[in-house]
Amino acid sequence: RIAAAVRLRLELEHSHREAVRAALAYCAMPQNARLSMTCLYHTVDTVWFATGDKSTDFNFYSKRALLAGAYGMTLLYWLDDSSENCEESWAFLDRRLEDVMRVRRVKANLQRLLPSPQFVSNLIKSGSDWASGGTRYGRTGRR
């Protein structure tokens, strides 16, 4: 669904590629960074909303950040794509979205493996004596 929404977005702009290129050049200027980020956010937020995303937790932000990267790279690729019906752009988009899914799977696996951020914090704190050369865990602290 995400790929279809991004593809539709770019297909709607197909006859206006040079205008999109000019708009990107304008947005790339440092004084227009805020406008650029606002436009990118609205685009990826609309894609997620249109595909039925209802997240309100940290996933809300991570989904949009990951899609922003994939969308931005695909947009730049699409601008120079001369393949028939932009087939190379759609293959590029699919690869970027697979990368996004891989990141999300790794994140989910880490969340399953690590009981909680508090557990990790306590583990780090309990090992701080050892890391600083204290006597905990058999270190003598001699230099």
TrEMBL record:
Q: Which family does it belong to?
A: Belongs to the COQ9 family.
The GO cellular component terms are: mitochondrial inner membrane
- Which GO MF terms are attached to this record? lipid binding
Q: Where are the transmembrane segments?
A: none
Q: Which organism is it from?
A: marine metagenome
Protein name, as recorded: COQ9 C-terminal domain-containing protein
Q: Which UniProt keywords apply?
A: Lipid-binding, Mitochondrion, Transit peptide, Ubiquinone biosynthesis
Pathway note = Cofactor biosynthesis; ubiquinone biosynthesis
What this chain does, per the entry, is described as: Membrane-associated protein that warps the membrane surface to access and bind aromatic isoprenes with high specificity, including ubiquinone (CoQ) isoprene intermediates and presents them directly to COQ7, therefore facilitating the COQ7-mediated hydroxylase step. Participates in the biosynthesis of coenzyme Q, also named ubiquinone, an essential lipid-soluble electron transporter for aerobic cellular respiration.
Biological process per Gene Ontology, one example term: ubiquinone biosynthetic process
